[in-house]
Amino acid sequence: MLETALHSHLAARGAVHVAERGVVLPRRFGDDPAAEYAALREGAAVVDLGFRTVVRATGADRAAFLQGMLTNEVASLVPGTGCAALLLTIQGRVTADVRVAALEDALLLDVDVRARPALVEALEKLIIADDVELGEPGEPLTLIGVEGPGAARLVPDGARLAPYAHAVVTLAGVPVRAQRASEVRGPGFVLHVPAARAPAVWDALLAAGGRASGMEALESRRVEVGVPRIGVDMDGGTLALEVPVEDAISATKGCYLGQEVVARGTSRGHVNRRLVGLRLEGAEPPPGVPLVHDGKEVGRLTSVVRSFGGGGLAALGFVRREQWEPRTELRVGHAQGMTVARVAAFPLA
After folding, report:
1. Which of 56, 77, 148, 217 is the most interior residue, by most CB within 10 Å?
2. Per-residue b/e over 295-321, b at no fewer than 16 CB within 10 Å?
């Protein structure tokens, strides 16, 4: 089981940890996750993003190579800029989601730690005569998120950064790369912090007015705004056009891995199923159970959370085209009873 670089430091400060798909993460701090959620929406939340890691791409051909692999514009990035992107299979299915940051001598790929092996393996198989090397960053890094409308107050010069732009700033005397990005499509930053100094940076962010927030609050908001999580809401069986990741796919760039499938689906104007938001009424069902309409299975749940913003339960799930319009009523059958699931537009709260 993987523990993040901040695990011991946060456990000593009241973090209640939970194992999530092989990574031990803070579920909450204390007994008020609703206040942690409020910090995400209204203040400045500080989040351990130890479930993500960084792959460093170097070599003279790195930009040209990744331009042909990823779904967004990489070749046009200049140092200090970045973008969101996906790595797809040739069949247009999702291998990994990444945040790209361009440096003078490298491209940094921020990826879920559980998707890293698949990303690196898929890319290395396609490096033939290209001058490209994929490896670790120069020193071990841990990622910390700062989320919410007050995030820019905690990150020096953060307010001047455009979306996915990044710069090296100083926090607690530590040089830190801050990228303008969010786990919940809100105002926020992802900080690349030297792992050995992560506790000092974490404490400095809290001293500056941030509130420690765990995965319970983060997942609640993620589902409410419809951000799919790799390995949960999208995987090697998911077409890119079936999930709401429009900012990660360029509509104008040329050929990339899986591009023909994306272009074909775009020209057709629809896919047969899509990830949608759902409001649930009844007992809490487990992820993965079927969604039923008129006695026929029409989809399945992927994420189920307590919605702090909307009250009750919220979920993400795949639903067939005939049933994905808002207010469509579906049923969820599971061991705890019967739950009603109503399709709802994002954001759910």
Report:
1. 217
2. eeebbebbbbbbbbbbeebbbbbbbbe
